[in-house]
Amino acid sequence: MFDLIRAAIPVFLLSLLIEWAAYRHLNHDHDHEGAHEHYGYETRDTLTSLSMGIGNVLINLVWKGVVVTVYAALYRLTPLRLPQDAWWVWALLFFADDYAYYWYHRVSHKVRLFWASHIVHHSSQHYNLSTALRQTWVPMTALPFWLILPLLGFAPWMVLLAQAWNLLYQFFVHTERVGRLPAPIEYVLNTPSHHRAHHGSNRIYLDRNYGGILILWDRLHGTFRAETEPVRYGLTRNIDTFQPVQVAFHEFRDLWRDVRAARTWRDRWGYAFGPPGWHPRRRRRT
Known about the structure:
It is a multi-pass membrane protein. By secondary structure, this protein is an all-alpha fold. 55% of the residues lie in helices and 0% in strands. The protein has one domain (4-20, 36-273). Helix 4 (87-110) crosses helix 8, helix 5 runs antiparallel to helix 12 and helix 12 runs antiparallel to helix 13 (265-273). Residues 29-35 have low confidence and may be disordered.
């Protein structure tokens, strides 16, 4: 099966080199004055992001086989079949996939078990194209959110292709080299400006802008926030390590520690499925 993401790896690397050269030889010029001091590239940070991306690709060589098997089984179970050569089916798939991504992304910020996987992507205090490659080594948390698509009659290969084009698009919004785009584009699409805000640890930016390609879902569900102040990238409590294994699993380690120390099953459930920062004395996120 054709893998769009693996085929795009040379494009990713070439884009990184172009952006790196732009930072090295041109002034930092995106239109957001007072941008965070950690712009551009830092060698250790970039190597960590590349390591996380390589690990993600290797793990997905195996995991993607599981995903295909599950999608194929569901596709065989459902009596629904959507034509694979109709333009309107591909248009419907575009919106269905992007909406599935919105909810996957939102839950990944709101439920600690899912956040333990997704936190990897937010762990860099820099924001550049290499940050897009800083991906989880536990991709299993994404599976539930797309199961409805093969059940609705979309062929499994179509669902996988839609997921790939969504990730491909998102690679290019991880940059400070692009300022705000024309207003109609900013209103409809997830742009570098919108995604910079999403990566901010500033209070006003927390849990905002979950969209993949479209920002319309955030506007519809009240989770949109424009980039209005300098973005402070990273986590509310940064992990201060460039060791890939620690980056990949530190939150799972902390989650397991909290679950083991909990005194009741209710508290164990809260630590695992409550929001990040949940504590039994507060019963809310911090």
